[in-house]
Design goal:
Layout: E1 2-6, H1 14-20, H2 24-31, E2 35-41, E3 43-54, E4 57-65, H3 74-86, E5 92-97, H4 101-109, E6 113-118, H5 121-125, E7 131-132, E8 135-136, E9 140-146, H6 151-166, E10 170-176, H7 177-181, E11 190-196, H8 201-211, E12 220-226, H9 227-231, H10 235-244, E13 246-250, H11 261-286, H12 289-311, H13 318-321, H14 327-340, H15 347-372
Parallel strand pairs: 4-5, 11-12
Antiparallel strand pairs: 1-2, 2-3, 3-4, 5-9, 6-9, 7-8, 10-11, 10-13
Length: 373
């Protein structure tokens, strides 16, 4: 796969551009002064145009994927590329679209959040009704994306508001997921953990309202709990929770004495069973690449648990884990890393990677089930 800038004869891609903006005179408003990028994976898959709007703001004016390749991740790859390309000189990227839920959802998954709307944009600027998602588009909905997100600065503001909200009741706050592991990418969520002395429904409402006041709210996810609930939590879940949480305030070390060797093995068995179940379902019914990617992501946690069970050492970073794994786990983790970067798979590759994961999970279920007996 290669993405390159197109500097000449941009109109040769007009048919593709018209899929996203169906009036040529509107495309002419930005085509000459905008930068065009094309994604090729053997042949042309996706095209986009980005303009400089001044004040360190750029705008994604047009992005379109060949219909037969839609839904295979090429648009997301293109947005990741241009976001990285413009991040050194711009602070914000805008994109405008009609009131179409699945398109807005796509941009949210690419790190955008709703910004504002321009009333009657489509009815005032186009010479014919624009129909999408079964309705006539009227207003232009703008979404924006911060191209220079600083998680440390964000966490500082988050912690200040969190301490003001809960005071001495706050036992611990931390990060999980890719930010906790130091492996975050442009589209990563901010997976935050909050542990209180106790957590009532009113606390959840107050916490949600506080998060709504923060920038990049659309990126925030995570877990909030009371201390006693965690102490009485399923031990196999506690193992992963403890080791995947990076505290930035307080501690969860009170959980460590609760986690025994059998809890780790139970985590492996449950993880393998879940992967086996869903992978088999996907092979028979869905045959979906995104489901397979999520299963390899889940399998990575099981691989971490297997290594811990074997050595007593928990390694968070995947690239630090690969060299010390046994060959089968090494193959699974490497396949998951490679798969994450691939926007599409050929049917034979989908089958091969599905079989690899399915057979690995089956062996684990038998191995760890037998050991438990």
């Amino acid at each position: 796969m290669i993405i390159k800038e197109i500097t000449e004869n941009k109109k040769q891609y007009l048919d593709l551009l018209l899929l996203a903006d169906e009036q040529e005179s509107m495309i002419d408003r930005y085509l000459d002064h905008g930068k065009m990028f094309a994604l090729f994976d053997e042949d042309l898959k996706t095209i986009c145009v980005v303009t400089d709007e001044g004040n360190k703001v750029c705008e994604l004016k047009n992005i379109a994927t060949e219909p037969k390749y839609q839904g295979q991740g090429y648009g997301k790859q293109m947005i990741a590329h241009v976001s990285n390309y413009y991040s050194s000189d711009f602070n914000t990227m805008l994109v405008g679209t009609g009131d179409c839920p699945h398109i807005i959802s796509f941009y949210r998954k690419c790190g955008f959040a709703e910004s504002h709307r321009v009333k009657n944009f489509f009815t005032d600027n186009y010479d014919h009704p624009i129909i999408d998602c079964g309705r006539q588009l009227v207003d232009m909905i703008y979404l924006k994306k911060d191209l220079n997100f600083d998680v440390d600065a964000w966490m500082e503001g988050y912690l200040n508001k969190l301490k003001s909200l809960f005071g001495s009741r706050l036992m611990c706050a931390g990060l999980q997921g890719s930010y906790g592991r130091g492996e975050a990418t442009e589209g990563s969520d901010i997976d935050v953990v909050v542990i209180l002395d106790y957590a009532a429904s009113e606390d959840l409402k107050a916490y949600s309202a506080m998060l709504d006041t923060l920038p990049s709210r659309e990126k925030v996810c995570g877990f909030i709990s009371g201390r006693q609930e965690l102490i009485n939590w399923e031990r196999s879940d506690l193992f992963q929770f403890y080791y995947d949480t990076t505290p930035v305030l307080g501690s969860i070390d009170f959980l460590l004495p609760l986690i025994g060797k059998e809890d780790v093995r139970r985590a492996i068995r449950i993880g393998a069973c879940n992967v086996y179940h869903m992978c088999g379902h996907n092979m028979v019914h869905e045959k979906d690449v995104e489901i397979l990617k999520s299963l390899y992501k889940s399998a990575a946690f099981t691989v971490q648990a297997i290594h811990y069970d074997r050595t007593g050492t928990y390694i968070k970073q995947k690239f630090g884990l690969i060299p010390v794994l046994q060959p089968k786990e090494q193959e699974i983790l490497q396949a998951g890393i490679t798969l994450k970067e691939q926007p599409a798979l050929t049917p034979p590759e989908l089958v091969r990677l599905s079989e690899l994961l399915f057979n690995w999970a089956a062996e684990l279920i038998i191995k760890y089930g037998t050991e438990a007996d």
